[in-house]
Amino acid sequence: MTKSLILVGVGGQGTILTSKILAEGLLQLGFDVKMSEIHGMAQRGGSVNTQIRFGEKVYSPIISSGEADVLLSFEKIEAIRYLNYLKPDGTLIVNDYEIYSLPVLTGNEKYPKQALEMLKSTVPNTVVIKASEIANNIGNIKVQNMVLLGAAVKRLGLLDLDWISIIKDYLPERFHELNIKAFNAGINEA
Amino acid sequence: MKKIMTGNEAIARGAYEAGCEVAAAYPGTPSTEILENIAKYKQIYSQWSVNEKVAVEVAGGAAIAGARALAAMKHVGLNVAADPLFTLAYTGINGGMVVVTADDPGLHSSQNEQDNRYYAVHAKVAMIEPSDSQECLGYTKAAFEMSEKYDMPVLLRVTTRICHSKSVVNIGTRQDVGVKEYKKDVKKYCMIPAFGKIRHHIVEEKLAQLRDYADETPLNRIEWGSRKIGIITSGISYQHAREVMGNDASYLKIGLSFPLPERLIREFAEGVETLYIIEENEPYLETYVKSLGLNCIGKDIFPICGELNPEIIEKALKPEKSRTVYALDIPIPTRPPVLCAGCPHRGIFYALKKYKDVVVTGDIGCYSLSVMPPLDVTNTVICMGAGISAGIGFEKAFQQAGKNQKVFGCMGDSTFFHSGITGLVDAVYNKSKLAIIILDNRITAMTGHQQNPGTGKTLSGEAAPIIDIQQIAKAVGVKDENIKVVDPYNLLETQEALQKAYEATEPFVIIAKRSCALLKEVQKNRANLKCSIDTDKCTQCKMCLKIGCPAIAFKDGIMVIDQASCNGCTLCMQVCRFDAIERTGE
After folding, report:
1. Is residue B334 part of a domain?
2. Alpha helices of B251-344 — where are they, by DSSP H?
3. CATH code, domain with B578
């Protein structure tokens, strides 16, 4: 049975690196894996998503609406934007974090209040992670992606793998300690 | 050995394993990472060329000289490179030559969604289409073999979802084919009319041989399942179709997309009850199948516009299936891409916005984002180079209409080297009054920071001569007094230069020189530079919001600057009339 996972966020939040580590881990676990990313304008604050599908044999790298087992959102309204991808019994993992887009900053559009409450009342399996806050406390907001990776791995039931060594493979040595700390914090939080 | 690779990484690996010796490209999403990955294989000489035409000519020359060579580009790049490709089809090659065209169905980051499969037909060269990363590797190797066997360049056509999707790949080792001997042969390689005429006949003969080969090659294959439905498909559409239909259909998966396998298609069509053609964008396969007198269903139920995905195919082939989806019915803000905090382009566009009576012809790059509010200053974005040349046209048309309206033409440094120099020569030669702005951020930024002739580095990171844009402008005849180099972080200096350009009656060049804010060394050097707002002085006039910086917000009743993303460019400080913004740090 193919499982699907969609990671969404804002360009610059580290969704792509997180997806790469996840895909590598799934390969090491013996799955056929496909991952699709769209990153043309990702550095420039746009909405980004990467999709991962794994199982015995995977054909399409693209997830259809209502088919994601897990929606991992790095930002609150991005969770709402991509909510239609989530399976009715799927799990939403959402970072309790707001990034205002330019139309919101300039006052032309409004950022919805109570986004989290609405998500929680809509999706029974909602897991809220204060990843940005945890990352900040650890020492750098940039490792919020590793907090969320830890949370996702835990919720996907994939702890039975040496994720730490994969994280080390994908990051320069000077960042290892901080990122591993964040990853473990994510596991504990979920 | 098993690895997980993107299509682009796998194409690079395939070129390496095939013994490719020379590779050239101009960066363009979604193709950029092909050359970036080839550059990691030190056995291959690789380079960023100034544009796609040059890249194909470099690869073509190398192939004629006897090396296996590759050129890679995005779909619109092949428009630029079409000229050498069409004639290389006539000359043929010596060492194998592969031209990668990376199409962008869905326009994830392009100005159109042209379907380059038609280029193979038009240029009369074979075309191969992989459907995942494993095939990207294997088909690249097959393309080199085919190129040498049939003595022609081979097009490898991929799409964004192939380039940027990762899947599992078994990698092999490099085949050391070396560089073949080159022998002078003017009748083959000098396409003067007398020789070209002869070569055209040879091209037709080679295509006839390839048509026979198309029916036999394992690149095209039938996968029998239920015979009620037959699907002819290629590339990523094959993966989507298999995902949706599984064994409830049979598949003819086309890997060699030109020339198409007539006998195989007829055999497949006879073996199934209803024949569907599933392909992205144009009805390329469908038109061919119908030309054989075969009934099939294609664009009647599948869209021409946009990318395909499993859901679209399911809706068309299994309309009875319904999906339950979550929905939160509240308006959520859009998140368009924006010029980054500290982007050096912002100052120029903010200053330009003050002129209400000008036309700004834009170009392809980060600065295309100047189209978006609140900057909203650009009138046209067409293709690489049109920032200058279309500006000349505007200016001449206004002249014809008796209007004295100023036109500004904008483009980046990499774009200027790509195809802006010719426009600049045209402007000088034809006595245009165009004001040209080169947004020189010292890198090819939009595609992810590639080196270019202005940066002083090559693809492999070696030091290179820096080609000076100011010297080029002088050399082609722009007068010294009509060339201004400004720092776009300095608003006053920028405004003064714009005013001079506005008043000029001759070609005028402004070079706005300031490194991209995202460059690693820039981020490091400016890490401690921050602007912040003194809320006691701030009158909330919101003037600073007009520069469209994503670091500045009106949040919880006060104006704030996000300290994490601000790099202290001070543009906001310079527009503030109440002295409420200050900069800190060294």
Report:
1. no
2. 262-270, 284-291, 310-317
3. 3.30.70.20
Does residue B13 sit in the same domain as residue B107? yes
Contact status of B318 with chain A (Cβ, < 8 Å): no
Quick check: is B297 in a domain? yes
B298 in the same domain as B186: no
* Number of alpha carbons in the 13 Å side-chain half-sphere of residue B152: 27
CATH number of the A3-189 domain: 3.40.920.10
- Beta carbons of B237 and B279 less than 8 angstroms apart: yes
Distances (CA, A) of B84 to B89, B109, B205, B257: 9, 26, 21, 21
Q: What is the pLDDT of residues A102-143, one digit of tens each?
A: 889 888 899 999 999 999 999 999 999 999 999 999 999 999
Cα B380 to Cα B312: distance, rounded to the nearest angstrom: 33
One domain, residues B509 and B533: no
CATH code, domain carrying B406: 3.40.50.970
Antiparallel, parallel or unpaired: β B552-555 and B558-561: antiparallel
Report the pLDDT value the prediction gives residue B232, as an integer from 0 to 100. 99
The residue out of B176, B195, B216 marking a domain boundary is: B216
The per-residue DSSP string of B393-455 comes to HHHHHHHHTT----EEEEEEHHHIIIIIHHHHHHHHHTT---EEEEEE-SSBTTTT-B--TTT
Q: Which range of residues forms the domain containing residue B459?
A: 345-522
Nearest to A100 among B4, B548, B553 (CB): B553
- How high is the pLDDT of residue A39? 65
Inter-chain residue contact B374 with A106, CB threshold 8 Å: yes
Binary contact (A83, B323; C-beta < 8 A): no
| E strand spans, B66-138 | 69-74, 97-103, 127-128
- Bridge partner list, B411: B438
Residue B262 backbone phi and psi in degrees, to 5: -60, -50
Q: Are residues B179 and B262 in the same domain?
A: no
Q: What gap in Å lies between CA B22 and CA B38, rounded to an integer?
A: 10
Report helix, strand or coil for B483: strand
Task: Indicate whether B294 and B310 sit together in one domain.
Answer: yes
Q: Model ipTM?
A: 0.95
Residues of B in contact with A62 (CB under 8 A): 161, 240, 309-310
Single residue among B178, B195, B216 that ends a domain in this structure: B216
Same-domain status, B40 and B145: yes
- Separation of first and last alpha carbons in chain A: 25
Domain ranges of chain A: 3-189
Mutation for testing the A interface, residue in B326, B376, B544 having most A CBs under 10 Å: B326
CA distance B309 to B302: 11
Q: Report d(CA B465, CA B577) in Å as an integer.
A: 43
Number of separate domains in chain B: 4
pLDDT band at B438 (very low <50, low <70, confident <90, very high): very high
In terms of domains, do B510 and B361 share one?
yes
Judged by DSSP in three states, B497 sits in: helix
| b/e code B180-196 from CB counts within 10 Å (16+ = b) | beeeeeeebbebeeebe
Give which of B518, B522, B524, B350 is closest to B437, Cα–Cα.
B350
Task: Enter the tokens of residue B22.
Answer: 């020379």
Please state, as a whole number, how many other Cβ atoms lie within 10 Å of the Cβ of residue B293: 8
**Statement to judge: residues B187 and B272 lie in one domain:** no
What confidence tens digit (pLDDT) does each residue in B499-552 have?
Answer: 999 999 999 999 999 999 999 999 999 999 999 999 999 999 999 999 999 999
Q: Do A102 and B164 touch (CB under 8 A)?
A: no
Model pTM?
0.97
Task: State the angle between helix axes of A176-189 and A144-155 in degrees (0 to 180), rounded to the nearest 10.
Answer: 40
Q: Pick B302 or A190 by higher pLDDT.
A: B302
